[in-house]
Design brief:
Keywords: Oxidoreductase
GO molecular function: oxidoreductase activity
Number of strands: 0
Pfam family, one: Haem_oxygenas_2
CATH architecture of the largest domain: Up-down Bundle
Protein name: Conserved uncharacterized protein
Order of helices and strands: HHHHHHHHHHHHHHH
Number of helices: 15
Radius of gyration: 21 Å
Distance between the termini: 50 Å
InterPro entries: Haem_Oase-like_multi-hlx, PqqC-like
CATH topology of the largest domain: Heme Oxygenase, Chain A
Oligomer: single chain
Number of domains: 2
């Protein structure tokens, strides 16, 4: 058995890592493939080393995209709809090792961007929350110019492009919240259950948040392809999405996940209020179609406060020596979000 694109020949060392990994993931028996193609594992290992160096030492954007497309493909194995024959190589040790090495290299890069000294972090949980809010408020991602542009300047096409770009994370947020529920500390269950119930549209299928977002896409004439919804994303958007899966799939990163989710909920209301004003300015006035964003303007104010009071504060009390992890999760989210907004702003303003 051979994998299309993996046959021996000149130029194989230049094959993209995500192409190689995707082909492996689709094999019925990866061990059989390895026995038939004994040069395949060294080929992939060589490309892995190359792409890590290019992405995180030489800062090559195309290499970062290759890293995050690979991680996206590997993470996707954990959230596919289940069924016979689905994700046969989900836990294959070779692929898990590839994922681990990519994650470790990416983490070193992200940690290198965070200016944080442990002795700066208050020991009191209440003081920690104030410090968290201050760092959040001072980060440039929380007030990015892309939303001012959408509110006051953009014409219709940039809004459509924004919605398509926003699709990956929004359509999958149900799964991301569900991951945060696994093994949940008892004192946190009510807050996260409320968040999940909101994602589920309070029991009404048409009001489930992923369906509300699809309604928005239909309204503006954007095509939704569930098997191809990451194709439009650059490395910045993929990194932001991958961060949620990275934290959600690793139990050791639970505190980071809390920080990540908290700032995500905190950012939405003010930014989406500007977005909705801009929509109405360009004639996108159907409030039923805009329900996804309108709900996040109102509901996420309570969610942001709830995450801090009912999730972050109890965890700061329970793990007072590890509150830095909450900050690290938040800062990683804010940094990847800023990268995403910067890239998307550049794209949208060229459409204006």
């Amino acid at each position: 058995m051979r994998v299309s694109g993996l046959e021996r020949g000149t130029g194989n060392e230049h094959l993209r890592l995500n192409t190689l990994i995707q082909a492996m993931l689709e094999q019925e028996s990866l061990d059989t493939l390895f026995s038939q193609e004994q040069g395949l594992q060294p080929l992939v290992q060589k490309r892995l080393q190359q792409i890590i160096s290019l992405a995180f030492q030489e800062d090559i954007p195309e290499a970062k995209h290759e890293v995050h497309r690979t991680l996206f493909a590997l993470y996707e194995q954990n959230v596919l709809p289940g069924g016979p024959g689905v994700a046969p190589n989900q836990y294959h040790p070779f692929l898990l090792d590839i994922r681990h090495r990519l994650e470790e290299a990416w983490e070193r890069f992200e940690l290198g961007r965070i200016q944080l000294r442990k002795d700066e972090v208050p020991s009191s949980p209440e003081a920690f929350v104030r410090y968290f809010r201050q760092r959040y408020a001072n980060h440039p991602a929380t007030r990015h110019k892309i939303f001012d542009f959408l509110e006051t300047e953009a014409h219709r096409e940039p809004f459509v492009r924004f919605f398509i770009s926003d699709c990956t994370l929004n359509i999958r947020f149900y799964d991301l919240v569900a991951l945060s529920l696994v093994g949940l500390h008892s004192q946190l269950r009510q807050e996260l259950a409320q968040n999940f119930w909101d994602e589920m549209g309070h029991g009404t299928r048409e009001n489930e948040h992923n369906n509300l977002f699809k309604r928005m896409l239909d309204y503006v004439g954007a095509q939704y392809d569930p098997g191809n919804f990451a194709e439009s994303l650059g490395w910045q958007g993929l990194a932001g999405y991958n961060l949620f899966l990275r934290f959600g799939l690793h139990r050791k990163h639970f505190l980071r996940s809390i920080g990540n989710m908290a700032v995500s909920e905190m950012m939405d209301p003010a930014n989406y209020a500007k977005l909705v004003k801009g929509c109405k300015r360009v004639g996108l006035t159907d409030e039923k179609a805009l329900t996804y964003y309108l709900e996040h303007v109102s509901v996420d104010v309570a969610h942001g406060d709830g995450w801090i009071a009912n999730v972050m504060l109890p965890m700061a009390n329970q793990f007072p020596n590890h509150t830095c992890d909450i900050l690290i999760g938040a800062e990683m989210r804010l940094n990847t979000c800023f990268d995403y907004y910067e890239n998307l702003y550049s794209q949208l303003t060229h459409l204006a």
